[in-house]
Amino acid sequence: MDLDYGMLGGRRPYYRFGDTDGDPLLVLPGLSDAFQRGEPNRGIAMALTGLYREFSDRDVWVVGRRRHLPVGSSTRDMAAAYATIVDEHDLWPADVVGVSLGGLVAQYLAADYPDYVGSVAIVSAGTRLGGHGEAAVKRWRNWAGKGKWTDVLADTEREVADGYEKTIAPPLIQLAGRVADFRPEVPADVVLSCTASLEHDSREILETIDAPTLVAAGDSDRLFPEPRIREVKDGIDDATLALFKGVGHNLATSKPRELNGVVSRFFDGFRGDGLYP
Fold first, then answer.
1. Is the domain of 17 the same as that of 40?
2. For the chain, first and last CA: distance in Å?
3. In three state form, how does the secondary structure of 198-226 look?
4. Of 80, 228, 257, 260, which has the fewest CB atoms closer than 10 Å, so is most exposed?
5. Which structural domain, as residue segments, surrounds residue 21?
6. AB hydrolase-1 domain: which residues (predicted)?
7. DSSP letters of the chain?
8. Which CATH number do you get for residue 261?
9. φ, ψ dihedrals at 84, nearest 5°
């Protein structure tokens, strides 16, 4: 398997793996991308190859958002930046997987740049945040602005994790925060990413998306509740919904095999009964 990673243009982290002769797959990560520290490294690259091993026959690009985001950056602006990446590296038409904040960006990428997108999977993202999700992201933005990184990370686990992790992870993070430095590479990017998430509302552009679209989410997502998820599915003509029962916002990492299996079959053109949970 080919493996490459680094910074595109010196500002945007990327990881590339799989079969470089295969069909391109572009993965847009969630808010956690803004929390990264240091340069892309082999450890993260190997973890990603494991997380997305179902796509080893594809040319997989996991591309983060640029560091030092311009003030006022919206999810639509982020989509335009990704379109430039697709164009510059001849990845079109790419199948796209957008997770959480990446799923918000993917909606605009598919709507505004239809020639660049083959099919799209919008994972753990709705037309906009729910009321509880808005309160949580505002809380994270406020703490990030004050440099309370341990509080931000502990609270994100409370909001997105499932099962015992929801209970165990937050106090462990708080304990580690007494000696560890969780400050991200560019703190302002966390604040700007939270603001972009809070301001996102895609209801008026969904009908312009022509790409076959899979909307996949957990039915227990606290940030994007089921009605917000269904709004995406209902707003796109060629959309399919896959709801995972009893799963929260961290679907992509808590059920990677099940999710990636569904996404892979969808991208391969299977739409029949029994494909989805």
1. yes
2. 30
3. HHCCCCCCHHHCCCCEEEEEECCCCCCCH
4. 257
5. 2-128+201-267
6. 74-251
7. -EEEEEEETTTEEEEEEE-TTS-EEEEE--GGGGG--SS--HHHHHHHHHHTGGGTTSEEEEE-PPSSPPTT--HHHHHHHHHHHHHHTT-PSEEEEEETHHHHHHHHHHHH-GGGEEEEEEES--SS--HHHHHHHHHHHHHHHTT-HHHHHHHHHHHH--HHHHHHHHHHHHHHTTT-----SSHHHHHHHHHHHHH---TTTGGG--S-EEEEEETT-SSS-HHHHHHHHHHSTTEEEEEETT--TTHHHHSHHHHHHHHHHHHTT---TTS--
8. 3.40.50.1820
9. -65, -40
Tokens of 163: 């099962």
Residue-wise pLDDT tens digits, 181-233? 999 999 999 999 999 999 999 999 999 999 999 999 999 999 999 999 999 99
Closest CA to 99 of 11, 216, 4: 216
Query: What is the domain count for the chain?
Result: 2
- Domain identity same for 81 and 212: yes
**Amino acid 272: pLDDT:** 58
Do residue 174 and residue 243 come from a single domain?
no
* Tokens 């599915």 sit on residue: 233
Q: Are residues 9 and 111 in the same domain?
A: yes
Strands 2-8 and 12-18: antiparallel
Tokens of 209: 């998306």
Model confidence, pTM? 0.96
